[in-house]
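P.,

For your records, the input lines for the assembly:
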Amino acid sequence: MEIKIIRTNAPKAKPDQNSLGFGQHFTDHMFVMDYNLEKGWYNARIEPFGNLNLHPASTVFHYGAEIFEGMKAYRRPDGEVQLFRPEENMKRMNNSAERLSLPLLDEEFALEALKTFVNMEKDWVPSAPGTSLYLRPFLFGNDETLGVHTIHNAKFVIIASPVGAYYKEGLNPVKIMIETRDVRAVRGGTGYAKCGGNYAASMRAGDRAAAQGYSQVLWLDGVERKYIEEVGAMNVMFLINDTVVTPALTGSVLPGITRKSCIELLKEMNIKVEERLLSVDELSEAVKTGALKEAWGCGTAAVVSPIGELRMDDVKYQIADGGIGKLTQKLYDTLTSIQWGHAEDTHNWTCKV
Ligand SMILES: *Cc1c(COP(=O)(O)O)cnc(C)c1O
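Structure tokens returned:
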């Protein structure tokens, strides 16, 4: 399929690279493609960035038929722009689409569309340390009826936003608390899909934690309320003695690409990694005996986020003396140097656009 290109005749001024924030500025264009049950995907185009015109009965507004992805384009020291494992994002997008009965994408075409789009917006990829161009592909059901049935019409859109460094003054440990009231996902539900609805349902716990001075919640499984699943909207890892333990992908955990990359890097460092169930009781025991050495969250936005304090049953525990563990720092450094092209990419994870 051809991608029609309609250029803006009113390009915007680029924002100051030192105060970008997250998702506040948007580039000059967006990629849009439509879907219809009979026609399949059609009308692929890159057009000036602007509001979408949607029918008030559009499925997405009523039944939450929406999935998304989050990834970044990085400015290399040689000035070129690269993506990090983008084929993984497209694969995951299709897994999410399948779960929500949304139409599947041709992954190769979606990847080509993404690269064409990023190439067009190349000047928007910032170069200040830690900054990047955040890419947000999303797909939603767009039938103009309130009837509840399989999607007949959908849209796939990619927008891009230059974002600032997650940590302005180096890695910064966060405080987290175990969430005992709400659950994020259940097995058999949509936990493994990257869908907007999962986020809507997790805001309340996040707000409550923030009100008590915590930046994230540690989610427990929705069935037994016993096993650790994720931290905020990140995957989570614990260094217990000399083994890294991370919750297994049971269906209610989002299969993070950062998680996957961390596991691969850790194994190369000859560090034992266990993907398994980890109960609060086991974690609590490890905290009390001092077996828990480090803990961190991982995801595209922060890459690696050290956990300095954990609150359980109203008791606060310091992890890694409330600072940044050695392994946490090493993982962060290793991963970010590959992503920004400061180190050789021996894994073939990056691709230039
Ligand atoms: C996106 C996301 C992650 C992290 O995935 P990455 O591919 O590493 O960015 C983890 N948990 C949830 C709930 C997410 O939505």
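Two observations worth noting. The pocket of pyridoxal-5'-phosphate is lined by residues 70, 194, 230, 233-235, 254, 256-259, 299-300 (CB under 6 Å). The chain has eight helices and 18 strands.

Regards
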